[in-house]
Amino acid sequence: MTPMLELDGIESGYGETRVLGGVNATVDEGEVVALVGRNGVGKTTTLRTILGSVEPWAGTVTYRGEDITDLGDVETVQRGIGLVPEERRIFPGLTVTENLELASYGGSETENRRDLDWVFDTFENLDERRENRGSDLSGGEQQMLAIARALVSGADLLMLDEPTEGLAPMIVDRVMEVIEDVRDAGITVLLVEQNVRVALDLADRAYVLAHGEIVHEATPEELRADEETVERYLGVSFAD
Ligand SMILES: Nc1ncnc2c1ncn2[C@@H]1O[C@H](COP(=O)(O)OP(=O)(O)OP(=O)(O)O)[C@@H](O)[C@H]1O
Ligand SMILES: [Mg+2]
């Protein structure tokens, strides 16, 4: 089977600074794939390079068999790839409904494109908050809105950058449920997480990024059992 997304030898960075030194990875349709690694290893840079907001120095990005390496972010989004950035970037002065309506104007005409009714049926928290402004939402609700917005724009491959960052544990669980709902709706997910437990709970497969390369690929079960890799590259321990 041809992967939905394939990164082949991706090198990338900023100015003179190399961040990625040859990243190889694949994502199959329907999978939840986690990309984990310590602070500053280049997880966000990887997502930006896929999106086309950062131009790779070398290597290719292939999406559904098409070489999209040289496409900018607008064209990439039109292909059906969505990124929910760490900062979420919702419009604070607009209501939940208005934020979603705005997102529904652009994006891509994919099969998975969702309408507002689907969002409000699926994301109860947002349904209750339809008429509230972005600035009135909690961190968790803002994250849900940012995810919903990408789906309304037609993301078939949803890239999430640290969706649970800064959220209280109960809200983390709620956002995880939302990501499961998204997966169950047939949307493929590439998940970047600092919270390794969250990443491994959600993912079918995980890549570990270190020194600008993928140093390890494993199932969550394998990674949980591999204390050495987890401590060395992720700085966490599951031995408790
Ligand atoms: N716009 C930028 N200009 C210059 N350097 C950058 C820029 N963005 C990131 N960097 C640097 O590139 C490296 C990789 O950053 P990146 O944000 O991709 O890492 P990350 O794995 O997402 O880290 P974090 O866990 O902190 O989110 C870091 O050293 C960072 O300081
Ligand atoms: Mg990051």
Topology at a glance:
Layout: E1 5-14, E2 17-27, E3 32-36, H1 43-51, E4 58-63, E5 66-67, H2 73-79, E6 81-84, H3 96-105, H4 116-122, H5 124-128, H6 139-152, E7 157-161, H7 169-184, E8 188-192, H8 196-202, E9 205-210, E10 213-218, H9 220-225, H10 227-234
Parallel strand pairs: 3-8, 3-9, 6-7, 7-8
Antiparallel strand pairs: 1-2, 1-4, 4-5, 9-10
Bound molecules: adenosine-5'-triphosphate and magnesium ion (MG).
Residues 43-44, 86, 161 line the site of magnesium ion.
Structure, briefly:
This protein is an alpha/beta fold and 240 residues long. It has helices at residues 43-51, 73-79, 96-105, 116-122, 124-128, 139-152, 169-184, 196-202, 220-225, 227-234; strands at residues 5-14, 17-27, 32-36, 58-63, 66-67, 81-84, 157-161, 188-192, 205-210, 213-218. Strands 6-7-8-3-9-10 form a six-stranded mixed beta sheet, sandwiched between helices. Strands 2-1-4-5 form a four-stranded antiparallel beta sheet, covered by helices on one side.
What does this structure look like?
The mean pLDDT is 94. The chain is built from 10 helices and 10 strands. The longest helix has 16 residues. Helix 3 packs parallel to helix 6. Helix content is 37%, strand content 25%. The strands form 2 sheets. It has a 6-stranded mixed sheet with strand order 6-7-8-3-9-10, sandwiched between helices. The chain has one domain: P-loop containing nucleotide triphosphate hydrolases (Rossmann fold, 3-Layer(aba) Sandwich). It has 240 residues and is of the alpha/beta class. Adenosine-5'-triphosphate binds next to strand 2 and helix 1.
